[in-house]
Specification:
This protein is α+β, with helices and mostly antiparallel strands. It has two helices and twelve strands, in the order αββαββββββββββ.
Length: about 190
C-alpha cells in the first residue's frame, strides 16, 4: 500500500515541476542591457629558450654516481615577457607573462578583455621579453625561428561602436601584433 502511495506522490511532484518549468520558460527575460564595447587581447607565442649552467664543485661531483658525473649542470627555461597595456593614457595591465608547464617550457598565452565605452580610444601595448639574469653562471640563449621578437608594440586609435570588440592578436608571419575585429582604426 505504501509503494503505490509513494509512486503517486512522485508522479504528482513531477507533474508540478514540469508545469512550473513550462510556465517559467514563457516569462519575459531581458538579456544584458549593456551596450558597451571591449578590447580583447588573445595570442600565443613562443619565447626564446635560455639555458643557465653552473660548474659543479668537486664535492658535488663526488656525491653523484659515476655514470652521472659531469663538469657542469644546466637548467633550461623559456624567458617570460612583460605585458603593459595602456588604454586612453591609463595603465590597465602590467604583468609578467610566464610559460606554463612543469618545466616552464610551454608557449606563453595572453588573454585579457577590457570593457570600454563606445567611441574612440587610444590603445598602446608593449610586450617585451625579459632578459636572463645569472650572476657568475653561464647563460646560453637559443632563439629559434618560431620564437617571437624580443619586443612587440602596438599603438592604435580605435573607434568602437556599441557591442564592438577590438581584437589584438600576434601574427607569426608578420611577427607583429595586429588589430582585428569590429574596431575601426582611426
Amino acid at each position: 500500500m505504501i509503494a503505490p502511495l509513494r509512486r503517486g506522490i512522485a508522479v504528482a511532484f513531477a507533474v508540478v515541476v514540469t508545469v512550473a518549468v513550462a510556465a517559467l520558460s514563457r516569462a519575459p527575460y531581458a538579456a544584458g542591457e549593456t551596450q558597451g564595447a571591449a578590447v580583447r587581447l588573445a595570442w600565443r607565442v613562443r619565447s626564446a629558450r635560455v639555458e643557465e649552467c653552473r660548474q659543479l664543485t668537486p664535492a658535488e661531483r663526488a656525491n653523484l654516481p659515476t655514470h652521472m658525473r659531469r663538469e657542469e649542470v644546466c637548467e633550461g627555461r623559456v624567458l617570460p615577457y612583460r605585458l603593459v597595456v595602456t588604454l586612453d593614457g591609463r595603465v590597465v595591465a602590467d604583468e609578467l607573462v610566464r610559460a606554463a608547464g612543469a618545466r616552464a617550457d610551454r608557449p606563453l598565452f595572453v588573454f585579457h578583455e577590457f570593457p570600454v565605452a563606445p567611441g574612440p580610444h587610444d590603445l598602446r601595448i608593449r610586450f617585451e621579453r625579459e632578459q636572463p639574469s645569472a650572476a657568475g653562471d653561464t647563460v646560453r640563449t637559443a632563439e629559434g625561428a618560431a620564437a617571437a621578437p624580443a619586443l612587440l608594440e602596438l599603438a592604435e586609435r580605435v573607434a568602437l561602436d556599441p557591442l564592438d570588440v577590438a581584437l589584438v592578436v600576434y601574427d607569426p608571419e608578420q611577427r607583429a601584433l595586429i588589430l582585428r575585429g569590429s574596431g575601426n582604426p582611426q
